[in-house]
Amino acid sequence: MSGMVYYSIGKGELNFGRRNGKPLPEVILGAIGIKSNHAKIVLNNKGLFKLIVVDGEAAVSTLVNGE
Questions:
Q1: DSSP calls for the chain
Q2: Rounded distance between C-alpha atoms, residue 35 and residue 18, angstroms
Q3: Domain total of the chain
Q4: The pLDDT of residue 18
Q5: Tell me, what's the pLDDT at 25?
Q6: Domain that holds residue 32
């Protein structure tokens, strides 16, 4: 496997977090350091997206592709 997972962002927002997140995230992650409501990707009307780290503690240590 490539280690990549693809999701379609159809409603404009895709939430990431644990199974106990409220609201229940569309993408369930279970690694150490993942918060209940960790982050979300928001798609704007121009087709661009923005990653928003929802949890303040997670904002300090969240990486995308190692950065």
A1: --S-------SSEEEEE-TT-SSPPSEE--STT--TEEEEEEE-TTS-EEEEE-SHHHHHH--STT-
A2: 6
A3: 1
A4: 94
A5: 92
A6: 13-61
On whether residue 21 sits in a domain, the answer given is yes
Q: Return the amino acid letter for 40.
A: K
Would you state the structure tokens that stand for residue 17, as one six-digit string? 């977090």
Distances (CA, A) of 23 to 2, 10, 35, 66: 29, 17, 13, 27
> Which pTM was predicted?
0.72
What are 44's two structure tokens?
């704007």
Q: Give pLDDT < 50 ranges for the chain.
A: none
Query: Computed from CA positions of residues 8, 11, 58, 61, in that sequence, does the dihedral angle turn out positive or negative?
Result: positive
- Whether residue 5 is contained in a domain is answered as no
Cβ neighbour number for residue 33 with a 10 Å cutoff: 10
